[in-house]
Amino acid sequence: MLNRQIPLSPNETWSDADGGLPVSAPESAEAVVVDQFVAATGRLVWAIRESFVRYVTLIARGEYTIAGGVTEGEDGQFAFPLRRAVQEGDDWRLSFGGSVHFVAHHGLLDVLIVDPELVVGPGGGVLATHVRGDADELIAMVVTDAASPEFSWKELVWQDVPTKLATAGAELLGNVYPKGTDMASLGIRVQLDA
C-alpha cells in the first residue's frame, strides 16, 4: 500500500484526524514494488463546494482565477490536468497540475488549491493540495471513502467519489465549514499508454 501519511494539520496524520482510515507504515524504497503508468491524458474534475464558490463570488464579491492548465466547465467544475499516475497494489497516487485561487474580503479570504495530489484505493483516500511557497509540503483538503476505478479500453474512471472536508481543509477554507462537511464529489479519468 502507498504511504498515505499526508498531514492534515500540525501533529496529525490522516488516520488519527479523520475517522481512523488506514495508514500504512512507511516502507523502504527497496521493499516497494511500484507499477508506474505514463498517462497520455487524464484529469481530476472537482467543483470544491457550490456554496463556497457562490459565497466568494456573489456574497463576498470576490473572485477566483484558474491557471496552469485548469479549465472550468459550464457546470462549475474545475478540471485539473493529470501529471503522473502511479499504482501500488490496489492503491493509486495521482498527481495533477494547475491551480484555482479564491480571493475575497480584500485578501482576508485567500484560498489557493495548487497541484493537487490524490491517494485513493479500497481503504479510502485523501485529496491534498500543495502549500503556497513550498512545493514539497501537502495538506489534506478532503478524505474519501473506499474507491476503485472502472477499467475500459486503457482508461481508468472513478465517478462521483464522495468527499468530506479534512481538518486542514477546513482551516484552509477559513473554518467556514467544519471538519466532516460533505464537499463536491470527485471525478477522475486516467488514460494509460501501456
Automatic annotation (TrEMBL):
Pfam families (UniProt xref): HtaA (PF04213)
Ranges that cross the membrane: none
GO molecular function, one term: oxidoreductase activity, acting on the CH-CH group of donors
Chain positions covered by the region annotation Disordered: 1-21
Residue spans of biased composition, Polar residues class: 1-14
InterPro entries: AcylCoA_DH/oxidase_NM_dom_sf, Htaa
Residue span(s) of domain Htaa: 42-187
The name this protein goes by in its record: Htaa protein
Biological source species: Nocardia globerula
